[in-house]
Write a structure and sequence with these properties.
The protein has 246 residues and is α/β, with parallel strands linked by helices. 43% of the residues lie in helices and 15% in strands. A seven-stranded parallel sheet has the order 3-2-1-4-5-6-7, with helices on both faces. Helix 1 packs across helix 7, helix 3 packs across helix 5 and helix 5 packs parallel to helix 6. It is globular and about 60 Å long. It starts with a strand and ends in a 5-residue tail after the last helix.
C-alpha cells in the first residue's frame, strides 16, 4: 500500500514493487491517477486498487487500512506499507499564520504518527516505510516549521523501531536530503541533493535485502554521504547556523 499515491517518491517506489504484486494507491481524491495506475500495470502489477485518502482525517486511518486489506482479498496480508504523504508548506506564511503552521504540523507529524500507529497495530509482518528528512536533524531558521515536524517524526520512528525490534514487522526510516521533484520546483538545490528514483532505489533495496529472513528495522541516510554532513551540521556555532539557507 502506498499512502500518498501522487508523490514523486511514492510513484518510483510503486514502480519498483509492481512486478508480480498487487498494489493499493491511497491519495487525496482519485482524479488524475489513471495514468499512474496504467503505468504500474504495464510494469507488471497483478492489480492496482485506488482509495480516496485524506491524511488529516485521522479518525478514518484505521478504516482505510481495513479497506486496503479488503482490496487484497481474504487470506492475503498487507506486507508493505509506504507512508509517503506530506506537505512542504510555506515558511514565511507559517511564521504569521497559525492555521498554516498547524496544517503543516498536522499533515507532516500528527497524521503520520496516527497512520504509523495503526499500521504497526494492524500489520502482522513485513515492512512499514516512513520518511524523515535531513531537515529534522537540526532546525534551521529558514524552514523550522517543516523541520520541527520531521524532528518529531524521526524521534517517533526510532522509538517505534525499537518497539518492533525482533518481531516479524520492521520499520524503515528514510532520511533523504533535498529531493529534486515537484514539491521543490523552483527552489535552490542543497548539497548532496537526490532525485526520487535514488530515494526509491535505497528504500526498495532495503526491503528486498530482508527476503527470506526476519525483517530488520533500519534508518537510511540518502545518500549515505549525508550522514557525515549531518554530524558536521551539529558542530556549526548557532550564530552562524541561524543564517543557513533552507
Amino acid at each position: 500500500m502506498i499512502l500518498g499515491g501522487r508523490s514523486d517518491i511514492a510513484g518510483e517506489i510503486a514502480l519498483r514493487l509492481a512486478p508480480g504484486n498487487e498494489l493499493v494507491l491511497a491519495a487525496r481524491g482519485l482524479q488524475g491517477l489513471d495514468e499512474r495506475v496504467a503505468t504500474l500495470r504495464a510494469a507488471g502489477a497483478t492489480e492496482v486498487h485506488t482509495l480516496d485518502f485524506d491524511a488529516t482525517q485521522v479518525e478514518k486511518h484505521r478504516d482505510l487500512v481495513h479497506a486496503a486489506q479488503r482490496c487484497l482479498g481474504e487470506g492475503e496480508e498487507l506486507k508493505t506499507a509506504v507512508v509517503a504523504f506530506g506537505i512542504l508548506g510555506e515558511q514565511e506564511r507559517a511564521e504569521h499564520d497559525e492555521a498554516h503552521a498547524f496544517d503543516i504540523a498536522l499533515v507532516d507529524y500528527a497524521a503520520q504518527v496516527s497512520m504509523l500507529t495503526v499500521l504497526a497495530d494492524e500489520m502482522k509482518s513485513g515492512h512499514i516505510v516512513a520518511f524523515s528528512s535531513i531537515a529534522g536533524w537540526r532546525a534551521r531558521r529558514a524552514n523550522y516549521v517543516y523541520g520541527s515536524t520531521k524532528a518529531g517524526l524521526d524521534a517517533f520512528c526510532q522509538g517505534l523501531a525499537d518497539r518492533l525490534h525482533g518481531g516479524p514487522l520492521a520499520l524503515i526510516t528514510a532520511r533523504p536530503g533535498f529531493v529534486i521533484g515537484s514539491m521543490t520546483t523552483g527552489m535552490k538545490q542543497a548539497p548532496l541533493s537526490v532525485t526520487p528514483d535514488v530515494v526509491a532505489d535505497a528504500v526498495v533495496d532495503s526491503i528486498t535485502a530482508d527476503e527470506g529472513r526476519m525483517p530488520r528495522s533500519r534508518t537510511l541516510w540518502i545518500p549515505r554521504a549525508l550522514q557525515a554532513l549531518a554530524w558536521v551540521m551539529r558542530l556549526v556555532p548557532r550564530p552562524i547556523w541561524r543564517h543557513m539557507p533552507r
